[in-house]
Here is the input.
Amino acid sequence: MNKIALITGATAGIGEATAIILAENSYDVIITGRRKERLENLKQKIENQTNSKVYSLCFDIRKNSEVISAIDSLPESWKNIDILVNNAGLASGLEPIQEGQIDDWEKMIDTNIKGLLYITRKVSPNMIKRRKGHIINIGSIAGKEVYPDGNIYCCTKHAVNALTKSMRIDMLPHNIRVSQVAPGMVETEFSEVRFHGDKKRAEEVYNKITPLKSEDVADAILYVATRPAHINIDDILIMPATQASTRDIIRND
Ligand code: NDP
Ligand code: 8X3
Here is the structure.
C-alpha cells in the first residue's frame, strides 16, 4: 500500500511540483488549495502520468472550520496521512512597516502561521495515534534573516522556523518526524501574488538571475520524506548558486 502525503497549496509552484514528484515516487497524494479547477487539472495530470491515487480538497486554509470539515470529509482509506507538507503560503505587499497594508499583514499571518497551525492541529493527532508520521514545513531564507520591507513576511517565516523546532520537541515522544525545507528565491507565482497581480513587477524580481525552480525544492522535499525511519532531516536551506543571502544576488548582464 502506498504512503499518503497531504500537500497544502498544491495548485501552483512548489506545492504542485511536490505533489507530482511524490506521486512519481509512489505516494498517494491529497492535494489542497482554493482553486478548484487547478486541483482537478492536477489530479488528472498525476493520474494520467503515474500509478498513484489523488484526492483533492478545496478549502481556504485561513479558515479553521474549512480545514476541519475538509479533513473530516476524507474517505476512510485516505484518513491515515503519513506526510503533511505545510506549503501553502504567500507574501502580500513589500512596504516599510509604517506604510504597510493591514489587509496584507492579515493575509500573511492568517495563511503562513495560522493556516499551518490549523491543519497541523487537525492532522497530527491521528499521526500520534498511529505513532507514525512526518511533518515537513516550508520555511524560507526569510525565516533566517530579514530584508528591507520584508517585515511581516519575514516575521511569518521566522514563526515557521520557530514552530518547526518546537513542534519537533512536542512530537518527539510520539515518533513523528518534523522537518523544515527553507528555500531562497524560487520562480513561482509568489512574486505575482506579492505584487497583487502586477506581472511586470514580478518578472523584474527574476530578471537576469537564475532562481531555483519549484522542482528543485520538490526534490529536496522528496529527499527529506524518503530518509530511513531512524533519520530526521531537521532543516535544509536551499539557495540558488547565485544567491548568498536575501540581499546578495548575482545578476547577469
Ligand atoms: P505560489 O504562489 O506559486 O503557490 C502558493 C500556493 O499556496 C498556491 O497553491 C495557493 O493556492 C496556496 N495558498 C495560498 N493561500 C492559500 C489559502 N488561503 N488557502 C489555501 N491555499 C493557499 O508560491 P510558492 O510555490 O512560491 O510558495 C509556496 C511556499 O513556499 C510558501 O509557503 C512560500 O512562502 C514558500 N517560499 C517561496 C519562495 C519563493 O521564492 N517562491 C522562497 C521560500 C519559501 P490557492 O491560491 O489555489 O489557494
Ligand atoms: C521567499 C524568499 O527572499 O523572496 O520566501 O522573501 S524571499
Notes: Residues 9-15, 33-35, 60-62, 87-90, 111, 138, 140, 183, 185-186, 188-190, 193 surround NDP (ligand 1) (CB under 6 Å). The longest strand covers residues 176-183.
